[in-house]
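Workshop exercise sheet. Pairs work together: one partner reads the sequence aloud, the other fills in the structure field after running the prediction. Swap roles for the next sheet.
Pair: D.N. / O.F.
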Amino acid sequence: QVQLVESGGGLVQPGGSLRLSCAATGLYGTYNMKWYRREPGKEREVVAVISDFGGKTNYADFAKGRFTISRDNARDNAKNTISLQMNSLNPDDTAVYYCNILDYWGQGTQVTVSS
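Structure field:
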């Protein structure tokens, strides 16, 4: 059974930082993974993508220069585990952030940026 478990969301002041993590278990092999987010009243959108072995990354324009997606494939039992380091957060980054691998989704983690 495939499971994705996200963690690291919370409340942060503008200009602050958060680090999200996502662990996908129950899969054989290593796969591209993505972070999405859904802001209140909007469609879900891609935040960042990382290739199966971490050699390639892509970011939405709003994430470039502020967010960093990464993964640690060195540990076999964590090969589908990714992180999203988010810096210089602003209120527009308030959203539920979701992890995705293949057709599987995490439950989402709330990020709220507010003073």
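Discussion prompt: The CA atoms of residues 6 and 22 lie 4 Å apart. What would you look at next?
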